[in-house]
Specification:
By secondary structure, the chain is mainly α. It is built from 21 helices and 2 strands.
Length: 491
Amino acid sequence: MAIKSFPLIMILILFISSFTMPLIKNNRIIKSISFITNLVCLILSIFTFDYVKVHGDFKYRMGHFDAPWGIEFKVGAIECLMAILFTCVCFFIIWYSMYSIEKNIKKMKIPFYYLLINILLASFLGMVFTNDIFNAFVFIEVSTLASCGIIAVKDDKESIKATIKYIVLSSLGSGLVLLGIAFIYSITGNLNMEFISMELSKHWTEYRKIVTLSIGLFVIGLGIKGAIFPLHIWMADAYSSAIDTTTALLAAIGAKAIVILFIKILYRVFGYEIINEVKALNLILFLGVLGMIMGSVFSIYQKNSKRVIAYSSVAQMGYIFLGIGLSSAFGLASAMFHIIGHAFTKSALFLCIDSMRENTGDKICDLRGIGKEMPITLGLFSLGALSMVGIPILPGFLSKWNLSVASIQADKIYIVTFILVSSLLNIVYYSPIVINGYFGEENLKGKVYMSKEKNIKEIIPIMMLIGMMVCVGLFSNYIMKILLTACEQIF
């Protein structure tokens, strides 16, 4: 059926359309191309999910040769959900950028910016769909170059420094991943994930040291790109120095695509038996818990409002790696659910904080009384912050609840304490922005109601992201059921 080609069509639409943009001189047309192509990809991803729901997982062959000689995509419920998530978040961010991009970068760079966004999304989708480990590496490298471009496009000292730090660390991570691929290929003679798994299941005990080394290389290499603590050191600088839409995009789906690939390599390439035998999950669990706490601690000591939200992302990635490290289907499903809820929440938070900073200043103290001047924007920010803290019904609470249940099921009840502590730390760094924004006679004195609020058409994309966040919470049982069913097939 033609619908099986939709994953490839999505990637081709994004790549082909991106390279037409420099040829067009009208920035409005360029924005429209990016907006429409992302909308088309969103629609195609929804159709693909509907097909998978009815007919089950499928593979799509690229070219004339079957695996393992040819490259193929493997598409299941998880891949479809992540494709919907990535295209949906990117769609709303592009929508928001159509009103704000001229304020952040020079007009001559706008075609280049939208070119990079389309390439970036295409590479993320490629990582999600591919069933070939070297093909995944190619998509990683494409995403790295595109990420560097959209960070550096701001063209100031801070963004250039952040880009250099990111590309140096990312190159290190890529080198380690490539070395891991080389070791695996030397043992199995295959690059297709499932064929590698079949060969490893037969012979891995003969090459135990090489397999263990390759797992370590993947954990460190993809850990750098996925910002696992303490390999996160590029994240805060990149997020805080980039323009608003770049930060929202990278924070929402950038590291998440790497995490999905990381899960595929752990479970589809090596398999649960091998990674459990070499204790890789214990290391991931430890680093996840550490990141969950330390990311929140670092956020508390930040004076720059954007860096507060940036370090918060380190903590949120900690929750995701915690779920992966619990070595259970429910823990893995909880990690993926957190990816979905966090993507909508964090993209909205970054767009809100940048909207407020635009009219005030970079420091947290500059946001005092902003709730009177920008009540709608701070209201949307507050909803996102409540989700991050863990207020019931919202996805942040449901993620933490599911992770706590998964910890208890795994006989690691002590982890619940760390989840609770992290939630309390979230309150410490989010509450000053919200409370000082809305309350306090000194904070509100001299402030004019709605004087700095953006036009409603600029706020609608943020409203839509927050609305999607709430929907994730309301339909959490349905989403978790899909994720859990898919994850149970892994174990």
